[in-house]
C-alpha cells in the first residue's frame, strides 16, 4: 500500500522490539469472538489513476454544463487560482489546530487576519476564528444570546434561511426554549408591527437575516430599536457577505453571524463552508468557538496564540459555551486569501457587479407580462419572481436551455407557490440572463394562450 | 518597527508583518472581468440609509504580495507533510494529494447543493457510497454524513438516543461518561438536555464494571464511551458493558475518535454499540487544515435509523439516487445542506486507495507503531498503565516533574529536535500526560529518530532542567505569553492612531 512507509522487514524488527512474535498478539485485548475475521465488503485497492477516473465519472453526472441561478445561502463566485495554490501548501492543510503556538504562527496569524477582516466587514468589535457554517453560526449566536440575557424565548424572522431555522430548532428542542416566528411584510422585509407585537420581556433575541432569504435587505436600525426596547439582543445573519462591501454594516446588531462561503470557498454540494460570528467586546467571554489573540514571546516579539480557552469544552466540559471543538480553519484561510486578493476596491467593484446583474435581470424579467417581482424592498444579488403558471414547468423549459432557474419556494414557503428565488453573481453573463428572459417570455405567452386570457395589467 | 529581525534564527524564512501593515492605497491583487450589463450606482439603488462608502481598514495589496505573505506564514507552521505529528487522539496521518485533486474536480467542487437531483447523481452517488463503506467498516445499519464535525456527530447521536427512548415513553435523565472522555462528550450531552454522570475508571484505565452496574439505573439513557479509550486501551469487557447497559433499557454510544485502531479488525456494531460517530479528519485521512474543516458522520443500528437527520440519501429500485426529506421521526437538521460533502469525497478516495486489505494493514501498522514507541521509551518515562496499547500510548512526566520539568516543557523541547509534540495535558486521568499516537504514517526510521529525541530530552532533564524549561530555541518565536493574551485580549488588528497635531 503506497501510503504506508514501513516494509515487512521494518514491521518484523519493530514487532521483535515489542517482545511479540505475531501482530495478532497486539490485538489480544479484543476478545476473539468480537474480532472481525472476514473481508470487508469494500471496493479497492485502486491506483491513483483509477481513483481519478472513478471521481471523473461521478463529476460527469453533474450540472457542469448548466448556468446556475441558485443562491439561497450558497453562492458561486469566481475563485482566483491563487487560493488553491496557497491552500495546497502542506504546512497549511496538513497542520493540526494551532495549540503548539511556536510552530503554528502561520495559521494563527492568518486567523487573526480573518478575525480582523470579519470585524471590519460586519462593523463589530470582535470575531471568532470561524464556526462550521452559517446555520450553526446562527444557532450558536442564539444560544449565546440565551446565556447573555438569561431569557428563554427567541424570535426568528420567517425570512431567515429555512434550513438555519431548522438547525436552531434541533439544537434547542430539549433546552426549554420557546421559538416564535416573525412574519414578513409586503416589502419582503420583517413586518415591524408584527415584530413589536411578538416581542416581550422574556425574549432573549431577535434573529433576522440581511439580505434575507428572499434577497431583500432588512431595516436593521428600526429592528434593533424594537428589540432593544424589550431588552432583547439583535442577531443579524448574513449568508451573502459580499453585500457588506456596499451595504452599511449592521452596527446596531449585538451579534452578527453567518456564512462566508462566498469568499473563495467552493459551493461543493453544500460544504465544507465557513461560519463566522462577530459581536461586541463586552460579550467576548460568552462567545463560542476558537479565538486567536495577539501576545508577545519571552523576547518581546509579537506572536499569536489561541486564547480565552476557559470558555471551551476541553477545559469547561459540560459547562462550556458550546460543544464545538473544531473551527473551519482552512476555509477561513481561503476566505482570508480571497479578501486580501480582492482588497478594498476589488471587493467593492465585485459587489457592484453583482448588484448590477441582479438589477438588470429584475428589470428584464419584470417587463414580461405576468411575471411579477412581488417584494418591493431593496435587494443585493437575489430576488423573488412570481411566474404565471406552474413554476416546475418553467424550470423544465429552462433546463432544456441549460439553465438551472433558481429555487422554487413553494415547498419551503407554501404561500409562495410558483415563486422562484433567483441569484445573480458576476458569473452569470448577460447572454445567459437574456436567454433566461427569452424562455420566461415564451413560457408566459404559452400559459396565457392556453388559459385564453390576457395578462393582468400592472 | 516591532517585527524587524534582530537575529538570525534557523526556522525563520523571512519576517512578515500583518497583511494590513503591508497595505497601501490603490493596489489590488485581482482584476474583474468587465461588466456586461449597465453599471448601477449603489448609492442610488440602495439609498443613503443603506449604502456603504467603504470598508475601513481593508487591505490593498498586489497578487505577488498575497502569495509571498501566505507562503511565508506557511513556513512558520508544521504539518504532517513536514514530519512526524504524534498528537494523541488526533490521528495525524498522511493526507493524500489525490484526495485534494478529486474534491476540486469540476462537477463535484462546483456543484450547488440545491441543483435538481437529476443533475446531482454523481454527488449523490459519492455520498451514498461513502455512507455504505462507513456502514460496512463499523458494522452498523445506517449512516448520516450531515454532522459537520465530531462534536456535532456526538450531539446528533445523543439526540437520536433521546428520540428513541422518548418514543418508548421515557427519555430518561442522565448519560454516563467515563472520566477519561474527551471534553466534547459532556459538552454535547449538555446541549441534548441530559445531565452527565461521571464514571471513575478502574486501575487498568478501563470502565469499572461494578461502578457501571450500580450507576446504570432506570434514569440513565445510556453510556457514552470511547473505545479504545483515551489511554489507547481497548475496553476488554466491552461485551459485558454493552449487556449491562442494554439490560437496563439504555443505549451504548461510542465516540469513534480512535477508530484508527479498529478498522478491519473489529466492528463496533458487532460489540454492542448502538450509535457512534466517526471523524473523517482522523481515521479517514481528510486533512485537519489547521483546525478544520472536519466531518463527523454518525452510524447507527437499524432501530435508530428513523431518527437520522433529514434528509437521507437513498437509492431507488431503478438505480437513481435521491434525497429523502419525508422523515417524520427524524431529530431534524443539524446543519444546512448536506454536510461537508468535500470531506466525504476525500474519505471515499482514501478508502478506495486502500481497499479492505490496505485498511486492515493500516490499522495493524498504527497499533504496531504505538507499541514500538511504548516499548522503546519505557524506562525513560513513566508508564502509568503498563500494558500493550492500541493506536496510542500514554506516558507521564512523573520522573521529570521531580526535576521541575513538565510534559509541556518536554513537548516544547521536542520542537527543537524537529518534531511536532505529542498531546499534552490529556487525558485528564493521567496527570502530566505524554499522549503519543504515531499513526501508520510514521516510518520506523522516523520513529527511531523521535524515540532518540525523547530519550535525549530525558537525559537533558537530568543534566540541565533549566535548559529544557526555556525551549524551544529554534522557532520564529519563543514561548508566548498566554496569560497576558487572555488577561487583556487583543483579537483584531487596529490601525495605529493618527499622530496628534502639535
Word description of this protein:
The complex is a heterodimer of chains A (458) and B (502). Chain A is of the alpha/beta class and 458 residues long. Chain A is built from 13 helices and 14 strands. Chain A is globular, with a radius of gyration of 26 Å. The model of chain A has no long low-confidence stretch (mean pLDDT 95). In chain B, α5 (121-138) packs parallel to α10 and α6 packs across α7. Chain B is globular, with a radius of gyration of 26 Å. With 502 residues, chain B is of the alpha/beta class. Classes of the chains: A alpha/beta (458), B alpha/beta (502). The interface between A and B is large, with 200 and 204 residues.
Question: How many DSSP E strands of chain A?
Answer: 14
Side-by-side strand order of the widest sheet of chain B: 1-7-6-5-4-2-3
Write down the CATH topology of the largest domain in chain B: Aspartate Aminotransferase, domain 2
Give the SSE order of chain A as H and E letters: HHEHHHEHEHEHEHEEEEEHHEHEEEH
Terminal Cα span of chain B? 23 Å
Amino acid at each position: 500500500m503506497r501510503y504506508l512507509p514501513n516494509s515487512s522487514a521494518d514491521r518484523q524488527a519493530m514487532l521483535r522490539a515489542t517482545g511479540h512474535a505475531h501482530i495478532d498478539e497486539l490485538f489480544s485485548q479484543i476478545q476473539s469472538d468480537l474480532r472481525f475475521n472476514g473481508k470487508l465488503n469494500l471496493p479497492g485497492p485502486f491506483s491513483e489513476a483509477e481513483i481519478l477516473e472513478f471521481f471523473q465519472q461521478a463529476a460527469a453526472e453533474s450540472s457542469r454544463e448548466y448556468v446556475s441561478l441558485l443562491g439561497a445561502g450558497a453562492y458561486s463566485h469566481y475563485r482566483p487560482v491563487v487560493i488553491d495554490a496557497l491552500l495546497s501548501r502542506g504546512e497549511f492543510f496538513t497542520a493540526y489546530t494551532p495549540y503548539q503556538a511556536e510552530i503554528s504562527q502561520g495559521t494563527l496569524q492568518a486567523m487573526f487576519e480573518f478575525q480582523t477582516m470579519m470585524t471590519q466587514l460586519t462593523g463589530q468589535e470582535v470575531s471568532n476564528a470561524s464556526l462550521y457554517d452559517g446555520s450553526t453560526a446562527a444557532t450558536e449566536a442564539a444560544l449565546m444570546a440565551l446565556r447573555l440575557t438569561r431569557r428563554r424565548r427567541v424570535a426568528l424572522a420567517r425570512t431567515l434561511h429555512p434550513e438555519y431555522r431548522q438547525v436552531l430548532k434541533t439544537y434547542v428542542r430539549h433546552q426549554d426554549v420557546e421559538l416564535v416566528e416573525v412574519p414578513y411584510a409586503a416589502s419582503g422585509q420583517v413586518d415591524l408591527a408584527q415584530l413589536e407585537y411578538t416581542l416581550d420581556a422574556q425574549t432573549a433575541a431577535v434573529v433576522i437575516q440581511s439580505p434575507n432569504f428572499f434577497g431583500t435587505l432588512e431595516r436593521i436600525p428600526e429592528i434593533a430599536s424594537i428589540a432593544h426596547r424589550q431588552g432583547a439582543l439583535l442577531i443579524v445573519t448574513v449568508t451573502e457577505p459580499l453585500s457588506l462591501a456596499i451595504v452599511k454594516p449592521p452596527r446596531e446588531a449585538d451579534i452578527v453571524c453567518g456564512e462566508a462561503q462566498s469568499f473563495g470557498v467552493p459551493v461543493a454540494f453544500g460544504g465544507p463552508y465557513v461560519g463566522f460570528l462577530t459581536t461586541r467586546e463586552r460579550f467576548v467571554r460568552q462567545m463560542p468557538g476558537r479565538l486567536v489573540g495577539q501576545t508577545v514571546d519571552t523576547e518581546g516579539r509579537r506572536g499569536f496564540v489561541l486564547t480565552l480557552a476557559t470558555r471551551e469544552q476541553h477545559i469547561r466540559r459540560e459547562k462550556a459555551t458550546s460543544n464545538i471543538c473544531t473551527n473551519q480553519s482552512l476555509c477561513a484561510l481561503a476566505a482570508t486569501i480571497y479578501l486580501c486578493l480582492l482588497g478594498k476596491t476589488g471587493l467593492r467593484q465585485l459587489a457592484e457587479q453583482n448588484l448590477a446583474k441582479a438589477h438588470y435581470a429584475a428589470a428584464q424579467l419584470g417587463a414580461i407580462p405576468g411575471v411579477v417581482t412581488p417584494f418591493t424592498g431593496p435587494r443585493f444579488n437575489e430576488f423573488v419572481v412570481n411566474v404565471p403558471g406552474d413554476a416546475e414547468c418553467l424550470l423544465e423549459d429552462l433546463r432544456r436551455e441549460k439553465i438551472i432557474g433558481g429555487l422554487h419556494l413553494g415547498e419551503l414557503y407554501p404561500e409562495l407557490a410558483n415563486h422562484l428565488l433567483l441569484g445573480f453573481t458576476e458569473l452569470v453573463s448577460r447572454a445567459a440572463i437574456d436567454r433566461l428572459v427569452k424562455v420566461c417570455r415564451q413560457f408566459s405567452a404559452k400559459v396565457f394562450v392556453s388559459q385564453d386570457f390576457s395578462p393582468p395589467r400592472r | 518597527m516591532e517585527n524587524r529581525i534582530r537575529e538570525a534564527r534557523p526556522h525563520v524564512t523571512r519576517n512578515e508583518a500583518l497583511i494590513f501593515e503591508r497595505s497601501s492605497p490603490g493596489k489590488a491583487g485581482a482584476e474583474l472581468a468587465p461588466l456586461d450589463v449597465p453599471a448601477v450606482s449603489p448609492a442610488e439603488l440602495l439609498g443613503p440609509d443603506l449604502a456603504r462608502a467603504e470598508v475601513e481598514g481593508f487591505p490593498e495589496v498586489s497578487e505577488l504580495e498575497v502569495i509571498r505573505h501566505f507562503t511565508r506564514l506557511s513556513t512558520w507552521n508544521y504539518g504532517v507533510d513536514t514530519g512526524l505529528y504524534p498528537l494523541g487522539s488526533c490521528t495525524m496521518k498522511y493526507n493524500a494529494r489525490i484526495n485534494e485533486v478529486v474534491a476540486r474536480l469540476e462537477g463535484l467542487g462546483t456543484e450547488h447543493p440545491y441543483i435538481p437531483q437529476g443533475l446531482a447523481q454523481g454527488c449523490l452517488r459519492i455520498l451514498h457510497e461513502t455512507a455504505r463503506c462507513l456502514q460496512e467498516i463499523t458494522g452498523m445499519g445506517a449512516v448520516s454524513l450531515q454532522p459537520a464535525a465530531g462534536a456535532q456527530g456526538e450531539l446528533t447521536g445523543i439526540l437520536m438516543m433521546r428520540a428513541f427512548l422518548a418514543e418508548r415513553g421515557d427519555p430518561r435523565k442522565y448519560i454516563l461518561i467515563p472520566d477519561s472522555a474527551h471534553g466534547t462528550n459532556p459538552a454535547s450531552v449538555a446541549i441534548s438536555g441530559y445531565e452527565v454522570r461521571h464514571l471513575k475508571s478502574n486501575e487498568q484505565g478501563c470502565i469499572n464494571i461494578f461502578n457501571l452496574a450500580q450507576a446504570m439505573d432506570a434514569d440513565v439513557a445510556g453510556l457514552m464511551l470511547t473505545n479504545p479509550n483515551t489511554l489507547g486501551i481497548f475496553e476488554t469487557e466491552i461485551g459485558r458493558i454493552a449487556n449491562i447497559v442494554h439490560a437496563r433499557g439504555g443505549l451504548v454510544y461510542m465516540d469513534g475518535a480512535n477508530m484508527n485502531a479498529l478498522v478491519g479488525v473489529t466492528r463496533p456494531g458487532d460489540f454492542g454499540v448502538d450509535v457512534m460517530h466517526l471523524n473523517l479528519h482522523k481515521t479517514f485521512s481528510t486533512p485537519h487544515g489547521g483546525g478544520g474543516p472536519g466531518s463527523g458522520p454518525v452510524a447507527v443500528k437499524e432501530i435508530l435509523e428513523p431518527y437520522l437527520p433529514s434528509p437521507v440519501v437513498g437509492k431507488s429500485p431503478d438505480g437513481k439516487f435521491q434525497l429523502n426529506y419525508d422523515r417524520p421521526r427524524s431529530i431534524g437538521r443539524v446543519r444546512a445542506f448536506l454536510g461537508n460533502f468535500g470531506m466525504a469525497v476525500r474519505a471515499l478516495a482514501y478508502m478506495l486507495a486502500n481497499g479492505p486489505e490496505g485498511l486492515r494493514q493500516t490499522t495493524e501498522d498504527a497499533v504496531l507503531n504505538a507499541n514500538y514507541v511504548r516499548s522503546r521509551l519505557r524506562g525513560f518515562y513513566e508508564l502509568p498503565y503498563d500494558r500493550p496499547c492500541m493506536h496510542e500510548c500514554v506516558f507521564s512526566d512523573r520522573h521529570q516533574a521531580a526535576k521541575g520539568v513538565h510534559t509541556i516543557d518536554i513537548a516544547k523541547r521536542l520542537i527543537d529536535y524537529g518534531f511536532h509534540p505529542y498531546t499534552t495535558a490529556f487525558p485528564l486521568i493521567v496527570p502530566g500526560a505524554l499522549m503519543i499516537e504515531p499513526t501508520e504514517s510514521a516510518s520506523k526510521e522516523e520513529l527511531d529518530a523521535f524515540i532518540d529525541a525523547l530519550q535525549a530530552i530525558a537525559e537533558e532533564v537530568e543534566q540541565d532542567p533549566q535548559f529544557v524549561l526555556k525551549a524551544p530555541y529554534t522557532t520564529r518565536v519563543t514561548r508566548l505569553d498566554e496569560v497576558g493574551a487572555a488577561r487583556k485580549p487583543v483579537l483584531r488588528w487596529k490601525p495605529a492612531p493618527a499622530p496628534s497635531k502639535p
